[in-house]
Amino acid sequence: MNKQTVLSGIRPTGYLHLGNYFGAVQNFLRMQDDYNCFFFIADIHSLTTHPTPENLQSGVRQVLAEYLACGIDPEKATIFIQSDVPEVSELYAFLNMNAYLGELERTTSFKDKARQQPDNVNAGLLTYPVLMAADIIIHKANFVPVGKDQEQNLEMARKFAKRFNRMYNKEVFPIPQPYTFGGGDMIKVPGLDGSGKMGKSEGNAINLFEDPKSIRKKVMRAVTDSGPTEMNQQKPEAIQNLFTLMKIVSTADTVTHFDGLYNNCEIRYGDLKKHLAEDIIAYTSPIRERIIEILEDDAYLAKVAKMGAEKARESASRTLNEVKDVIGFRKLF
Ligand code: ADP
Ligand code: TRP
Questions:
Q1: CATH T-level assignment (fold) for domain 5-187+297-327
Q2: pLDDT tens, residue by residue, 114-151
Q3: Same fold for the domain at 5-187+297-327 and the one at 212-292?
Q4: Domain residue ranges in the chain
Q5: What is the whole-number distance in angstroms between the Cα of residue 84 and the centre of ligand 2?
Q6: pTM of the predicted model, to two decimals?
């Protein structure tokens, strides 16, 4: 039976953090055996914020090494860099002819970005969902595992795929579905600053590449309160967040132990934080060591990127030829 196709991308704008790992990368790891998986580094998308060539290159290298260190297997999945597949930019140009100013202006991510960077409201930002649609449909992806923040962009991709199929009266593209492994809700990894999610832009991230000393420092600084005053009292958000993180990285026994102490009003947050920090370190240390190792091996990184680019181009050019044929481009010479 033909495997269904899964595709997801990440912009190379910083280190991977625990939120990315437990929210996104872990899903990929579970899928790479059973699906035809494409994981790519969205370096063209990252140009909207005008990185220097040095920053662009080091960002791409870092994310590539981090994907590999997490266990994404380049023999099973196709890992590639967006700019290595020029077919995507060609499809982006075609799709742009059927993407309308009104609908692009109305997307929340465009409105947010336009507000955040009023001096740099470029056309790339406006057509960001069109390029994202091209990324997805050029590989005829069936599923796209992304977080809630990408829901609207994915909805636009579905719209553009349907519009193309309808316009040419041909089912060229499958309609890509959002995806969470096992059908459950997306995990939301909380921040340690009392409320909300862990994120790069939130400035509260613990990175996979973080050294143990810095992890201890960040966890010990986590927001808490003066402690429970009644037995079995409900946990306020900041405390709940610590427990949520603990559920992700620690054993069930550890969670039960500290839960018991909380319920008996005997908890000492310092002890909980020390334990949590060590459990995070136990999780991230082997990944961090692999990231360091892989970053030293330029030949390996180059080999993976080359292999991924070849596989991705093969798949992309197959779709692009079909698209050109459907649009009506004819070879005259
Ligand atoms: P950030 O929010 O730090 O900028 P990205 O936007 O690059 O991260 O997200 C990359 C992927 O990681 C997306 O699929 C996103 O949904 C997921 N992700 C990011 N932060 C979290 C979090 N705190 N919990 C769960 N998933 C997350
Ligand atoms: N927009 C996504 C983000 O900011 C990255 C991305 C670009 C992407 N193209 C994609 C994700 C295609 C999934 C599929 O996180």
A1: Rossmann fold (3.40.50)
A2: 999 999 999 999 999 999 999 999 999 999 988 778 88
A3: no
A4: 5-187+297-327, 212-292
A5: 16
A6: 0.90
Say which CATH superfamily domain 212-292 falls into: Tyrosyl-Transfer RNA Synthetase (1.10.240.10)
247 is catalytic: no
- Ligand 2 center to residue 69 CA distance, Å? 20
Whose CA is closest to atom 6 on ligand 2? 9
What SS3 string covers the chain?
CCCCEEEEEECCCCCCEHHHHHHHHHHHHHHCCCCEEEEEECCCHHHHHCCCHHHHHHHHHHHHHHHHHHCCCCCCCEEEEHHHCCHHHHHHHHHHCCCCHHHHHCCHHHHHHHHHCCCCCCHHHHCHHHHHHHHHHCCCCCEECCCHHHHHHHHHHHHHHHHHHHHHCCCCCCCCEECCHHHCCCCCCECCCCCCECCCCCCCCCECCCCHHHHHHHHHCCCCCCCCCCCCCCCCHHHHHHHHHHHHHCCHHHHHHHHHHHHCCCCCHHHHHHHHHHHHHHHHHHHHHHHHHHHCCHHHHHHHHHHHHHHHHHHHHHHHHHHHHHHCCCCCC
CA of 188 relative to ligand 1 center, distance in Å? 9
Q: Please tell me the residue having the least CA distance from ligand 2 atom 14.
A: 8
Q: Does ligand 2 have an atom closer than 6 angstroms to the CB of 137?
A: no
Give residue-wise pLDDT tens across range 245-276: 999 999 999 999 999 999 999 999 999 999 99
